[in-house]
């Protein structure tokens, strides 16, 4: 009898020793991994509503929606996704205006708007995107995403005008070194971007 | 057995004591299921996403009163209070959000250009990359339907209205002197460089109750809220030079630009149809300062310009030309504050001051005039929900105009007036659904010079026909404007009344990515227009407000950037039928500035290999009426058709250096705007005439534009 009680309690601890927050985040990442963007965003949104002191849930609401906007064709949906991303990020931006990762996410949302309508938004956001990446780098010099994000954004224009891409490639390389050294604070903290940086570095070596 | 029971019990215990199941279904207003909606108890982790049939079910350990949240992309979020214990499964109907890209927009009569517009007809860049516009906002707007090309004047003539029937606003504050001063038949241009404006809204009728003192049209220019970065712009042009600088700080920024224009070298090199003593010369500058506060934004805009020219004006009625020596000084100041008062209230306050001074030598006579104009504005907006917004506000305009005419060694005539206009308005924006929206309001105003109160109702309605079928809208409005200074300055001798117009507009608009089709039909009724009985208005003329008129027509606009790669183009067509009995017209007739049909084709082609944008603008218009005293009747004859093909070429030397060429009227078409007839017939009984033509057949322009900024990306393409 005692044993059974112990086993039952042990199972309890196993399942629930993880906090609700950790469980929820794990579940949301699982959904996202399965390509269920809407469900993942919904899960992050629920966590955000329950955990006012965590910036990550809203950060991921912004991230999931921005990323899915890149692969969405319907313009009304793209703009709704980016609006949703912006709203979620706004909540955290007010609380943590000096968070390097949040600034990088803001730059991503703007990049989404530039892709949405380059003619109108290119002029409007390009300067701001650069400024955000600069600020993000200043706040956290070891944030590989701030370094790579900026380099990637600059690459488009440089290629087009045939400007020398060597300094940009150097930055991409530097971001790879930072990626290698980067240790996320918790398993849920942002750690994305390395694969894209590697792909970009390969492109650099082609020439 | 017992042990298993204990085991399960213990497990259950750690899952939670009383699990309640929350069930239901999410649908839209029509009862169609919404899959993927997020349903959860606020502040708890408990929730789920709805299934393909809209159904949802989840269990919660929460008890008592809770907030159930239902959210889904493009739909309004629902928050409902529930008691977990008594919750019964239910169907939740969600409403589509009206703040989405494909929602209906109330826009009859209005062309939007800029960042904030959900549907832009023009992009900020267009103002300036349009060939033939030479960086003049007004010239670019003249490629839109509903406008008339009046080449000898240069101002905006909208739908059968005179140029002064259009009012210009910067950040919501009136600009009393939006154009440079000029004399007969020399075109003017807008004072504003497109440099500092990020949004332009041009309404050809049926506009909001927020704007008054305009019979035909309003042009709303908004300065940038935030410049993108620190930068310096340098422009070297065949007609002068320009310098601009923007500096950004954490919470504030300043942009300044200055330019010096001198047409002397150009007009020396290229012969003109006009005899200049001193060609046009202008020094101008603008500055915008912006400061962000915790809950609001303050903008201060200052512009000045000082210009002069000296020309010999020929006339068929005088053996020698009249020498016109004009100096104009203009100062404009505008401060506006926009801020939030709590969550749902927004306050806008502004003050504008314009000072215009002209000193005109007419041979040996001397005319001086000064206008001081003030506009104070206060507006409050209350957002009741995403669907209902109310604006209330008030305006106070003061205009003080003084003119003196000094005859050479003779008497001096003075004229002038001071008028105060107080106005209040209220307007509601109501979205009934994503498909149906309405704007309804009224404006009341009192003019203390005319001793007249007026009330002008305004209403517009828009309905979206279907997801891919475009929308129709209808607008109606009453508009009043006090007569222009040319008449009002004789207010000591005659008490004038407001001039009045009523607009009816029916609009159809279809948009999809990079394509816009607009068709608009309108009818405008004019009343109380000023009439007089002399050749030109004088202090002792017999005035009345008995004039009237109408304008009706169709405007078509098609813009396409999707059919051909790297090519953007738009086509505007206007048909208008307009007659007026006003001024000193003996009968109702079509005024000289109205051409019955107009067509503009604007193309912009980006040549990748040359890093160049080549732009062509072709404007055509049927002949304009003129009065031929050799024939019976009044304004009975027509000039030949107008034709102008302009070309420009912007070449990007590097990303930040641009070389720009433009030529207007490449084909050298001999356009005639009007004829001036002799007052008396010649010996053989025929009235002789003189053509009113452009000052030169072609205009050539070469410029070099260089931007210096940290991102090495931005350039002045948008300012060209």
From TrEMBL, chain A:
Top-rank lineage group of the source organism: Bacteria
InterPro entries associated with the record: TPR-like_helical_dom_sf (IPR011990)
Protein name per UniProt: Tetratricopeptide repeat-containing protein
Native source organism of the sequence: Flavobacterium agri
UniProtKB/TrEMBL annotation, chain B:
One cellular-component annotation, GO: cell outer membrane
Protein's UniProt keywords contain rRNA-binding: no
Superkingdom of origin: Bacteria
Main location: membrane
SUPFAM superfamilies in alphabetical order: Carboxypeptidase regulatory domain-like, Porins
InterPro entries reported for this sequence: Beta-barrel_TonB_sf (IPR036942), CarboxyPept-like_regulatory (IPR008969), Plug_dom (IPR012910)
Segment forming the signal sequence: 1-18
Pfam family, one: Plug
Keyword Metal-binding appears in the UniProt entry: no
Compartment list: Cell outer membrane
Protein name per the record: TonB-dependent receptor
């Amino acid at each position: 009898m005692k044993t059974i009680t112990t086993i039952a309690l042990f199972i309890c601890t196993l399942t629930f020793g993880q906090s609700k927050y950790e469980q929820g985040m794990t579940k949301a990442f699982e959904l996202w991994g399965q390509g269920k963007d809407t469900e993942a965003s919904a899960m992050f949104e629920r966590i955000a509503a329950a955990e006012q002191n965590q910036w990550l849930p809203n950060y991921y609401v912004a991230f999931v929606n921005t990323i899915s906007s890149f692969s969405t064709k319907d313009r009304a949906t793209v703009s709704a996704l980016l609006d949703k991303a912006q709203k979620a990020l706004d909540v955290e931006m007010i609380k943590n205006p000096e968070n390097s990762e949040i600034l990088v996410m803001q730059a991503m949302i703007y990049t989404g708007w530039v892709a949405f309508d380059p003619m109108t938004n290119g002029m409007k956001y390009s300067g701001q995107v650069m400024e955000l990446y600069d600020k993000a780098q200043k706040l956290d010099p070891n944030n590989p995403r701030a370094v790579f994000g900026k380099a990637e954004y600059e690459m488009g224009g440089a290629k087009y005008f045939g400007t020398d891409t060597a300094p940009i490639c150097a930055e991409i390389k530097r971001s790879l070194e930072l990626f290698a050294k980067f240790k996320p604070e918790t398993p849920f903290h942002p750690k994305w971007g390395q694969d894209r940086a590697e792909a970009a570095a390969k492109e650099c070596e082609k020439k | 057995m017992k042990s298993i029971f204990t085991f399960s019990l213990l497990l259950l215990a750690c899952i939670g004591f009383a699990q309640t199941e929350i069930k239901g279904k999410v649908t839209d207003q029509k009862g169609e299921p919404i899959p993927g909606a997020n349903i959860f108890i606020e502040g708890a982790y408990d929730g789920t996403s709805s299934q393909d049939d809209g159904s949802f079910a989840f269990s919660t350990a929460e008890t008592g009163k809770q907030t159930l949240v239902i959210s889904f992309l493009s739909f309004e979020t629902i928050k409902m209070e529930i008691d977990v214990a008594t919750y019964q499964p239910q169907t939740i109907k969600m409403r589509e959000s009206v703040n989405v890209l494909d929602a209906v927009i109330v826009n009859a009569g209005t062309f939007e250009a800029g960042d904030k517009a959900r549907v832009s007809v023009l992009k900020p860049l267009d103002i300036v990359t349009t060939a033939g516009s030479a960086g003049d906002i007004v010239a670019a707007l003249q490629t839109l339907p509903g406008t008339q090309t009046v080449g000898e004047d240069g101002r905006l003539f909208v739908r059968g209205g005179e140029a002064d029937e259009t009012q210009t606003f910067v950040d919501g504050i009136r600009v009393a002197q939006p154009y440079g001063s000029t004399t007969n038949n020399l075109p003017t241009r807008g004072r504003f460089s497109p440099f500092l404006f990020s949004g332009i809204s041009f309404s050809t009728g049926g506009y909001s109750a927020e704007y008054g003192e305009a019979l035909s049209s309003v042009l709303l220019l908004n300065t940038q809220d935030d410049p993108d970065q620190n930068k310096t712009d340098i422009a070297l042009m065949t007609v002068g030079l320009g310098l601009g600088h923007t500096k950004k700080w954490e919470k504030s920024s300043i942009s300044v630009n200055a330019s010096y224009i001198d047409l002397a070298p150009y007009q020396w090199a290229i012969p003109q149809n006009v005899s200049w003593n001193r060609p046009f010369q202008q020094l101008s500058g603008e500055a915008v300062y912006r400061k962000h506060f915790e809950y609001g934004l303050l903008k201060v805009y200052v512009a000045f310009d000082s210009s002069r020219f000296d020309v010999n004006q020929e006339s068929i009625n005088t053996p020698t030309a009249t020498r016109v020596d004009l100096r104009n000084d203009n100062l404009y100041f505008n401060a506006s504050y926009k801020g939030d008062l709590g969550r749902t209230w927004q306050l806008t306050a502004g003050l504008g001051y314009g000072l215009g001074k002209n000193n005109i030598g007419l041979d040996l006579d001397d005319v001086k005039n000064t206008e001081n104009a003030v506009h104070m504005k206060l507006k409050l907006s209350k957002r009741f929900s995403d669907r209902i917004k109310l604006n209330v506000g008030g305006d106070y305009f003061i205009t003080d105009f003084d003119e003196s005419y000094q005859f050479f060694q003779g008497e001096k005539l003075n004229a002038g007036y001071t008028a105060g206009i107080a106005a209040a308005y209220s307007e509601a924006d109501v979205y009934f659904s994503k498909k149906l929206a309405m704007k309804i309001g009224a404006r009341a105003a009192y003019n203390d010079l005319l001793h007249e109160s007026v009330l002008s109702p305004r209403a517009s309605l828009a309905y979206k026909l279907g997801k891919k079928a475009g929308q129709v809208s209808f607008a109606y409005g009453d508009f009043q404007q006090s007569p222009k200074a040319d008449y009002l300055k004789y207010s000591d001798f005659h008490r004038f009344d407001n001039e009045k117009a009523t607009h009816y507009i029916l609009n159809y608009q279809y948009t999809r990515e990079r394509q816009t089709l607009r068709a608009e039909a309108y009818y405008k009724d004019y009343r109380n227009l000023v009439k007089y009985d002399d050749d030109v208005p004088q202090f002792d003329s017999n005035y009345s407000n008995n004039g009237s008129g109408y304008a009706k027509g169709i405007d078509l606009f098609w813009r396409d950037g999707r059919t051909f790669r790297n090519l953007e183009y738009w086509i505007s067509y206007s048909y208008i039928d307009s007659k007026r009995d006003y001024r000193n017209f003996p009968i109702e007739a079509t005024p000289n500035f109205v051409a019955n049909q107009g067509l503009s084709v604007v193309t912009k082609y980006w040549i990748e290999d040359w890093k160049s944008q080549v732009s062509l603008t072709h404007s055509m218009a049927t002949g304009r009426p003129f009065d031929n005293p050799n024939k019976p009747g009044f304004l009975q004859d027509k000039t030949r058709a107008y034709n102008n093909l302009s070309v420009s070429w912007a070449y990007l030397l590097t990303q930040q250096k641009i070389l720009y060429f433009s030529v207007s009227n490449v084909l050298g078409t001999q356009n005639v705007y009007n004829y001036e007839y002799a007052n008396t017939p010649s010996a053989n009984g025929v009235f002789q005439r003189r053509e009113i033509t452009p000052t030169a057949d072609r205009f050539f322009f070469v410029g070099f534009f260089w931007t210096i900024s940290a991102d090495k990306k931005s350039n002045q393409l948008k300012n060209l």
